[in-house]
Amino acid sequence: MESVQFRDIPEAGIDRALSLSYLVFHENPEDEKRKHHHDLLRGCTRIGAYEGEELVGLVAAFPFTVSVPGGELPCPCLTFVSVAPTHRRRGVLSGMLAELFARATADGAPIAALWASEDAIYGRFGFGPATLGHTVEVDSRRPLALRITPDDRPLRLIDPSDAPGVLGEYYDRTRAERAGRIARGEAWWREEWLVEEDEEDDELSPPRVVVLGAPDEPVAGYAIYRTRTRDDAPGLVRLDELEADTPAVAAALWRYLASIDLTGLVRAWGRPVDDPLHLFSADRDQVRVTGEFPALWVRLVDVRGALEARSWAAPVDVVLDVRDGRLPANEGRHRLTASPEGCTYERTEDPADLTLDVRDLAACYLGGTKTAALLRAGLATEHTPGTAAALDAALHTALLPHTVDEF
Ligand SMILES: CC(=O)SCCNC(=O)CCNC(=O)[C@H](O)C(C)(C)COP(=O)(O)OP(=O)(O)OC[C@H]1O[C@@H](n2cnc3c(N)ncnc32)[C@H](O)[C@@H]1OP(=O)(O)O
């Protein structure tokens, strides 16, 4: 490992970095996709691991902004993480992440995040699954059975090229309501959400965007979806995103999706775990959760900065003993004093009320995991009874965190 050095990959090195990435991800994309990846990497921090002049590892990070309870934070979002098969398990990834954490600290970004290719990789680096997603299927061969009355205002299909303008402001409001959401710029909308051909399934239609509310009214909800029909299976509506102001608006959008002619299945990937659909659908055989997966993995690079940046639902005054084997500045006992008015997190010699690993604190940070659940799983130790309950009341968010932008 002494022979490997970590330094920025210059713009002229992006093609080489992509070749390494295609090698490790077993890909051979067309020119258009290569150009797209090139453009993405140009906008990223790019840390390379070099043995002499040979690039043997790459970590890139988008300079995204992610919503946290009560606000948002700059957050390097890791992507294209690749180590040459000839250099694996020699600490190359570990070295690149150490470099990335050092830069995040220097840049004042208290958290970092990623989507993991394999669950087993990132816990040891202090990342915890902070948002979860559900895969949901609706059998739409029969009318969607609902327990509430859908909003009867008109639905309209809009031109996807108009969607960033029509939906951008609305989406930003949803980011404030749910932690874990990425701020989307115009290019991200167009290239990740509204691109003509789906990256993974070229049989899918171009994106369709349906909005509830007349053109002269504010948007009350929307859905982005694609369709596919085949001779051997019911036609598919693949739902990419659905947001709604009220349950009635959500019901109207789900009913629309489930009643599109020549289709018999709605499949939604990455729905929030607390999607109200599960309560207002009248037939749970018709609406089924078919999978659950960790979505955004978060690293509290600067625990103090991260905790002080979020809002708190209830008062709490406890000493946390945080274990962090990679970033010593986070390690040890700190007094967390938080309330809806604000939060301080100061080093202390007082005895600990609760001991936990930084990866598990990260899983709780956006409100998606309870510290009481960590206790039940044997992952945290409560030294003062009632600490986990008090901490959970303070960490509580009205809606569960949710991330659907995969990067
Ligand atoms: C955000 C993203 O981009 S996710 C994409 C991640 N990339 C991939 O999956 C592409 C294919 N894989 C690779 O390129 C590499 O194997 C990587 C990046 C996953 C790991 O890189 P390496 O340089 O081998 O990791 P490194 O040597 O630093 O490993 C550190 C520790 O993690 C462990 N580890 C690394 N990869 C894995 C894995 N896939 N599964 C389980 N453990 C792993 C190592 O065993 C090691 O453990 P130790 O500290 O107990 O010895």
TrEMBL record:
Gene Ontology MF annotations: aminoglycoside N-acetyltransferase activity
Positions annotated to bind acetyl-CoA: V81, S82, V83, R89, R90, G91, V92, L93, S94, S117, E118
Keyword Magnesium included in the entry's annotation: no
Any GO BP: aminoglycoside antibiotic catabolic process
Keyword Transferase recorded: yes
InterPro entries: Acetyltransf_17 (IPR041380), Acetyltransferase_Eis (IPR051554), Acyl_CoA_acyltransferase (IPR016181), Eis_dom (IPR025559), GNAT_dom (IPR000182), NAcTrfase_Eis (IPR022902), SCP2_sterol-bd_dom_sf (IPR036527)
Active site: Y122 (proton donor), F407 (proton acceptor)
Keywords: Acyltransferase, Transferase
All copies of domain N-acetyltransferase, residue ranges: 4-149
Family membership: Belongs to the acetyltransferase Eis family.
UniProt cross-references to HAMAP family, sorted A to Z: Eis (MF_01812)
Binding partners and assembly: Homohexamer; trimer of dimers.
Protein name, entry field: GNAT family N-acetyltransferase
Protein's organism: Streptomyces venezuelae
Lineage: Bacteria, Bacillati, Actinomycetota, Actinomycetes, Kitasatosporales
